[in-house]
Amino acid sequence: MAAMHAVGLHLKLSVAVALVTIALKTGAWWLTGSVSLLSDALESLVNLAGAVFALAMVTLAAQPPDAEHPYGHHKAEYFSSGFEGVLIFAAALGIVWAAVGRLLAPQPVEQLGLGLSLSIISSALNGALAWSMLRTARRHRSVALEGDARHLFTDVWTSVGVVLGLLAVAATGWLWLDPVIAIAVALNILREGASLVRESASGLLDEALEPAVRDEIERTLDQFRHEHTIRFDHVSTRRAGQRRFVDLHMHMPGAWSLGRAAALRTSVEQALMAAVPGLRATIQLLPMDVEAHFGDARDPL
Known about the structure:
Layout: H1 2-32, H2 35-61, H3 76-104, H4 112-140, H5 143-172, H6 177-204, H7 211-222, E1 231-240, E2 243-252, H8 258-275, E3 279-287
Helix pairs in contact: 1-2, 1-4, 2-3, 2-5, 2-6, 3-5, 3-6, 4-5, 5-6, 7-8
C-alpha cells in the first residue's frame, strides 16, 4: 500500500506540473510564434494525457484480485506505457505537419527572450519532477511511473534543444532553423515512443525476471538443497507490473509426513519472499523419485 501511495502521489504531481508547463510553453509559443516551441508545448500536452492515464492504470493495478481476475490487476500498468507511446506518435505527426508548413513559408520569431524564459522555467520543473519520479519508480518497480518519468526526461532534453536552436536562429537569422528543430524534436520523441511501446508489449508477454533476481532466487534455494533429501527443478519466473512470481517443484523423501513437508515449503517460501521483495512463490511438493513432465497439450481434432 505504501508503494502504491508513493506512485500515485507522484503521478498526481505529474498531472499538476503538466498543467503548469502546458500553460508556460503555450505562452512561449504565443509570444514568439516559434513552431519549435509549439512542438515543445504539444509534447507537454502528451505528458498530461499520459500522466492522467498512468494514474488511472496504477489505481486499477492496486485493486485486489476478484472473481474475474484471480491473479490481480498488476498488468494494467503496462497499458499506461503503451498508451503514452501511442500518444507520442500522434504528437510527433502533428509536429512534423506544422514544421513542414513553416519550412515552406518561414516566419520571423518574436519576443524570443521572454518566450525562452518561460520554456526554461517549465523545463526546470519537469527535470526536478522526472528525477524524483524515476527514483520512486525504480524503488517500487512501477512500470507506469518509470514510463512517465522517462517521457518527462525526454521533454527536458527536447526543451534544451529547442532553446539552443532558437538562440542559433537569433544569432544567425536563419529562419529555416526553427522548423528543422521542430522536426528533430519529432524524431526524438518518436524514438522514445517506440521504446515505450516495445517495453509495454514485452511486459504483456510475461517476461522472466531480471538475471540478478533469478540469481538471488537460486542462491536462496541453495540454502535448502541437500543431495539426498531436497532438490528443486522446473524453476520458472515472470513479472506483472510490480508483482514478481516464481513457480517451482520441490522434491523430498516420499516417507516424510505431509506436515513436515509443508513446514519446509513454508520456510522456503518465506526465504524467497525475504530475498526478493514483492515475490510470490508457488511451490509444488513431489516425492524424490517422481518427475513431472511438461509437454504441449493438444486438443483432439
